[in-house]
């Protein structure tokens, strides 16, 4: 066997997101860290080793907002591709597994990677969220799982 080392190609990072509904509202967080720092988004984060995606989704929800919920189902799996402004090359690739959830308890309090957390109406969410992919999964969740 050769002692030569070969470069390991980068791989997408698996993450989970939660579209948490409370009546006619959805829970949003303002991102405290890159990527998309300062933008409104969904609670979520990276999958940990040995953790299933549903467990990760509920863990991230509690860590970022203090809210507890029950998962209702998978909404979508989307790619988050971030590119260099100078070269156009992909610099980060997240594979985002988004779950719908129904609020059970807790008032949102920003924690972990979130700078703010709050429930807002669908109309407010669609105005506050900048990324069209996130707006689409929020709208789909209301269509499939909303009242």
Descriptive notes:
The chain is an alpha+beta fold and 147 residues long. 23% of the residues lie in helices and 42% in strands. Strands 1, 2, 3, 4, 5, 6 and 7 form a seven-stranded mixed beta sheet that branches. The termini are far apart.
What's the short version?
The protein has 147 residues and is an alpha+beta fold. The chain contains three helices and seven strands, in the order ββββαβββαα. The radius of gyration is 16 Å and the shape is globular.
Layout of helices and strands:
Elements: E1 13-22, E2 25-31, E3 40-41, E4 44-46, H1 53-65, E5 68-83, E6 90-105, E7 114-121, H2 122-128, H3 132-145
Parallel strand pairs: 1-6
Antiparallel strand pairs: 1-2, 1-4, 2-3, 2-7, 5-6
Essential attributes:
23% helix; 3 helices; alpha+beta; single chain
Structural class by helix and strand composition: alpha+beta
Low-confidence stretches: none
Average pLDDT, rounded to a whole number, is: 93
Q: What integer value in Å does the Rg equal?
A: 16 Å
Sheet-strand content, in percent, reads 35-45%
Which of globular, elongated, flat, extended, rod-shaped describes the shape? globular
In which range does the helix fraction lie?
Answer: 10-25%
Q: How far apart are the first and last residues' alpha carbons, in Å?
A: 61 Å
How many separate helices? 3
Number of strands: 7
Q: Topology as H/E string?
A: EEEEHEEEHH
Q: Largest beta sheet, briefly?
A: 7 strands, mixed
């Amino acid at each position: 066997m050769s002692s030569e080392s070969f470069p390991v190609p980068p791989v997408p990072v698996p993450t989970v997101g939660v579209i948490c509904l409370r009546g006619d509202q959805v829970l949003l967080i303002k991102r405290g860290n890159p990527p998309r720092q300062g933008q409104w988004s969904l609670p979520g984060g990276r999958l940990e080793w040995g953790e299933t995606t549903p467990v990760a989704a509920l863990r991230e929800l509690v860590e970022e907002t203090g809210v507890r919920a029950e998962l209702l189902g998978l909404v979508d799996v989307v790619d988050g591709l971030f590119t260099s402004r100078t070269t156009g090359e992909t610099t980060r690739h997240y594979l985002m597994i988004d779950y719908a959830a129904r609020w059970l308890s807790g008032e949102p309090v920003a924690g972990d990677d979130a700078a703010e957390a709050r429930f807002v109406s669908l109309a407010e969410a669609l105005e506050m969220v900048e990324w069209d992919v996130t707006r689409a999964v929020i709208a789909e969740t209301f269509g499939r799982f909303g009242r």
